[in-house]
Amino acid sequence: MNQKIHEWSQKHKVAYGFIIWGFISFAYLLFIANWGFTVGLGGKGFVNGKATPGFLGHFQIVPDASFQFKNTAANWAITFGRGLGSVAVAFLLARIFHKWSTFIAIAMCLVGVPAQFMPGNGGGYVGFIVLRTIMAIGGTMLIILTQPVVANFFGPKQKALISQFGIWFYPLGTIISIIPFVILGQNVESLQKNWVLVFTILGALSIIPLIVIGIFGTKFDAPVKSTDPNAPKVAKRSGFAILGDYLKKKSTYAWILLYGGWLAIAVFPTALTHVIWPNMANIPAEILPQLQKIAKIWQVIFLAAVFVGPISIGLWSRFNLKRRWFVGMIISLAVLFFVLSTIVFVYGVAKDQGAYFAASELGASSAKYYVALVFLYIFGFLTGLCTWGIQGVMLNLPHEYADRDPKTIGWMFSLIWGFGYIFYTIIFIIISVVPMSTSISKPTAALIQTIIIVVTTLIALGGVVMLKEPRDDAKTFPWQKSVATEQK
User: Fold this and answer.
1) Are 467 and 324 in contact (CB under 8 A)?
2) Do the two domains 8-219 and 237-471 of this chain adopt the same fold?
3) What 3-state DSSP class applies to 120?
4) Dist CA 312 CA 294 (whole Å)
5) For the residues of 216-252, what is the DSSP string, one character each?
6) Per the UniProt record, which residue ranges are transmembrane (predicted)?
7) Is the pLDDT of residue 362 over 70?
8) What span, in angstroms and rounded, lies between the C-alpha atoms of 358 and 355?
């Protein structure tokens, strides 16, 4: 049966590639949604000797200062572990190839299923964290494991198309995890009471792609035995040898800076704006839920721009155009629109007295409030448009170089994505530490955190400068003649 599947996959490469790519991406979507729900399903914990709805209450967690620090430290470790897990993909691909590397990654996602059935005490909570950490590492590995499929089964135009629309799964999964809380508003306890059901369903659905990969996956990236002495060979090498080779290349560090910087503008806005923005505006407790809801709506709009980004900005990768200046410009615009969103929220939405009226229903909000709200959401959409639109161009870029090797490109993605994620983790730790200082006010701490996000994202421009254009005859603008044509 395996031989028949292999023969069919080689005869119908594009169809087979779409099937395998689609199920890996589906598994990644499930993981992102599962992980995203962690933020809202925690609840208030164990308060006044009574468990509140959510998994923190189930595990009898008292949300005091000690727990907050331990929880933050755990998040650091988990995020760092996800980076190491991404690097580990290169080692797995080198030893057991794509099929079983993917099988292991999805199986790790399923390890998260028993997490919610741990005993309702401190020890059970430790087990809960450990099992979900394993799930997180496996889930993060999946985004990398789509790339060998893209490299081996699709042509140049198809790769550009896949790179454009392959970016949907992270934003879509995050939207799934945010929307219920935006709709429910302050009535989230009904969802928090069912946290076991939510986590279990999202985790258990991973069994579908696991079965598909187990049955229909092939070792397409394994070295082919040939009697022809002139046939190209791909040696089975150790992960450490691969790592050593890539660490010697300047381009590796360029990709780390580019992906690490881009992750800052892609992840931090959805993870932190509903906290940073109200803190920067020094919002009083009585209207905090309303302002946090506005920030979450901004997050949804920011993420929803992924449905437009691939058919606008993402189209750049489908033509023979210079990449570096365009990638740098779009990332810079994403930063600009994020900064404008922050300014409008703090000085237009939150500072206006109309926000208080809107929250407390004491009267009509002012026109200034609604105008600011409109601009906030417009800037949110533009931030997302630039962020998600350029991701497809970036993901397709490694496939465009003449010296690319379809058999080993997954190794490269593993290392640059993994080290980029570790770079992001270091920034995440720095951002988390800032508000812990008792000598810094909330608005000042939030301002510092925002500056760190902006500066970190702009570091990606350094990576852009270090890279080379994949083609010498590429045009700067679509309306220009190519270099080759001009020379004739």
Assistant:
1) yes
2) yes
3) coil
4) 27
5) H---TTSPPP-S-TTS-------HHHHHHHHHT-HHH
6) 14-37, 73-93, 100-118, 124-145, 165-183, 195-216, 256-277, 297-316, 325-349, 369-390, 411-434, 446-467
7) no
8) 5
Q: Where do we find the tokens 């920067």?
A: 280
CA angle 462, 463, 469 (to 5 degrees): 115
Q: What is the pLDDT of residues 94-145, one digit of tens each?
A: 788 899 999 999 999 999 999 999 999 989 999 999 999 999 999 999 999 9
Side chain identity, residue 379: F
Q: Which among 126, 156, 169 has a CA at the least distance from the CA of 35? A: 169
Q: Find tokens 């703090």 and name the residue.
A: 346
What is the per-residue pLDDT across 230-246, written as a single tens digit (0 to 9) for each?
544 444 555 567 667 77
In CATH, 237-471 is 1.20.1250? yes
Residue ranges per structural domain of the chain: 8-219, 237-471
If one counts every other C-beta atom within 10 angstroms of the C-beta of residue 275, the result is 15
Contact 448, 434 (CB under 8 A): yes
Exposed/middle/buried for residue 363 (C-beta within 10 Å: 0-12, 13-18, 19+): exposed
Beta bridge partners of 51: 46
Residue 118, phi-psi category: left (phi > 0), alpha (psi -120 to 50), beta (remainder): beta
**Cross-strand bridge partners of residue 241:** none
Do residues 74 and 129 lie in contact, with contact meaning Cβ atoms separated by under 8 Å?
yes
Task: Answer yes or no: are the C-beta atoms of 137 and 82 closer than 8 Å.
Answer: yes
Which CATH architecture fits 8-219? Answer: Up-down Bundle (1.20)
Alpha-carbon span 471 to 101, nearest angstrom: 32
Within a 10 A sphere around the Cβ of 438, how many other Cβ atoms? 6
What's the chain's length in residues? 488
